[in-house]
Amino acid sequence: MPAILNYLLHLFTAVALVLAFFVVYTRVTPYDEVLLVRQGNAAAALSLGGSLLGFSATIASSLVHTMDYYQFAGWAFGALVVQLLVYVIATRLLRMAKDQIEANNCAFGGLLGAISLSIGIVNAGCIS
C-alpha cells in the first residue's frame, strides 16, 4: 500500500476511534457532559477532557508500536475498554461523582480527568 494511503487509513481510523470513544464514554456517564460543557461546567470539561487525552495517548502509542493495522485496531479497542473500566471503578469508589460534576466541582472534575489521563499514559506505556 502506498505510504499516503497507509497514513490516511491510520489517521481516519484513529479519529473514528476517538469519536467512538467520545460517544460511548458520554453514554456511560450518568450525566450529559456535552450539555454541561455547553452550560459552562468546567468540572465536566475537565473530566471529559482527561478521558479523551488518556484514550488518545494509548491510540498514539499503538500507532507507533504496532506492526499492522489489525494490531493497532486491537490495542485501540483494548484502550477503550480500559478507559471505561477505570471510569466505572473510579466513580464507584468516589460515590458522589454525578453530584459533584453536576455541581461544577472543578477539583472533582480535575481528579477524574487526572485519573483517566494517568491510566491512559500507563496503558500507552504498556504497549511499547
- By DSSP (H or I, 4+ residues per run), the number of helices equals 6
Distance between the termini: 25 Å
Uncertain regions spanning at least 5 consecutive residues: none
Radius of gyration (CA) equals: 15 Å
Q: How many DSSP-defined strands? A: 0
What percentage of amino acids are in beta strands? Answer: under 5%
Protein name: DUF350 domain-containing protein
Transmembrane segments: 6-28, 40-60, 72-94, 106-125
Keywords: Cell membrane, Membrane, Transmembrane, Transmembrane helix
Family: Belongs to the UPF0719 family.
Keywords:
single chain; 128 residues; mainly alpha; elongated; transmembrane; transmembrane helix; cell membrane; DUF350
Task: Set down the secondary structure blueprint.
Elements: H1 3-28, H2 33-38, H3 42-65, H4 69-93, H5 97-102, H6 106-127
Description:
With 128 residues, this protein is mainly alpha-helical. It has one domain (3-127). It is 85% helix and 0% strand. The chain has six helices and no strands. The longest helix is centred in the N-terminal third of the chain and has 26 residues, at 3-28. It starts with a helix and ends with a helix. The model has no long low-confidence stretch (mean pLDDT 93).
